[in-house]
Amino acid sequence: xxxxxxxxxxxxxxxxxxxxxxxxxxxxxxxxxxxxxxxxxxxxxxxxxxxxxxxxxxxxxxxxxxxxxxxxxxxxxxxxxxxxxxxxxxxxxxxxxxxxxxxxxxxxxxxxxxxxxxxxxxxxxxxxxxxxxxxxxxxxxxxxxxxxxxxxxxxxxxxxxxxxxxxxxxxxxxxxxxxxxxxxxxxxxxxxxxxxxxxxxxxxxxxxxxxxxxxxxxxxxxxxxxxxxxxxxxxxxxxxxxxxxxxxxxxxxxxxxxxxxxxxxxxxxxxxxxxxxxxxxxxxxxxxxxxxxxxxxxxxxxxxxxxxxxxxxxxxxxxxxxxxxxxxxxxxxxxxxxxxxxxxxxxxxxxxxxxxxxxxxxxxxxxxxxxxxxxxxxxxxxxxxxxxxxxxxxxxxxxxxxxxxxxxxxxxxxxxxxxxxxxxxxxxxxxxxxxxxxxxxxxxxxxxxxxxxxxxxxxxxxxxxxxx
Length: 468
Fold this sequence. Notes:
47% helix
């Protein structure tokens, strides 16, 4: 109402108007409070249904992506170094040192008497490990042509292994280049600088690329028997990770056995990759995660990775802390893994009894009725793959997790993060072949550098005999 209209009203009319407005305000306040209460209830319900933050403990996220909290103020930091009472360990002395320096007194510091003829008593020995100056040596090979004075035959002396006339770099230098690139994930420019600063070698990026191409060609040939070893193996661990090839998304697959490791990089992530690797062969046990292509592997039995299942169950526990089913399944899987590690400490009857208990308890847990959708999904998975959960308890040569394959892929993930993508399909295949050769050799106790050097033949130093 306008001011003029209010001034025309009587006192009684003004009182009635104010009372009416007060009643309207009370109704609006009650409506507001009701809406606010409904909003708070909906907000609490939404917050309770929100999933917890993803971490490496409840998903396949790597630990490097976990959110780290700050150190609480006032909290005493853990003391670095060995714990109190720890037994002292010192570096062992080498039995036959390369050089020996005797520190003998030459003259008396008091009277200046000559003491060089005195035998002296050994009071202390110290060994210093040092690197000699790393400087590459250039070997010039001169090949002469000779004509036989008796029959006129013209001939030249064939060079020994390591001094071939078509060789530009020695096997040890070429192996160093490949080691820097393949194992230390160094770019062409950083490899150039390392060779110049550490070995005094000047080499172009084209020269480095040529060495990598020769190494790749030789490794691809060596991979053939590794592939056959994998196909004939009784237990195979397999996993895959992303890779970038020529600007496109590809996938690196790994197949690990007790005696061989095979890496392949393909443009797809389908079961065709497994079929191509295995050809017509079939293994006894395949260890992998629940990826659909892995579940279609040609195998008599399949073992699901228990580490993946523990993380998936942890995600359900974080979302529904009061749900006892997920925690009970997690405890059961952990006990099964523990029993696997204690196999040699139990008698066959004791082990069989514990195994039967695990199987019965698993069946009872899978009969429970569940409400949360995430728990239902895991329950359906375990019911569907019930016979794939505890294969490792029936065979001592099967591991409960797929950590073998995941560890084999870790250097490739680092290589991808440091250097980016492969520029060509050939480069990707060469990298996979070299990784297969190195990982397979390390299973036999051969160092990575030695495995790489074996691809290039005999080193040029020390200079081999020429038959003179």
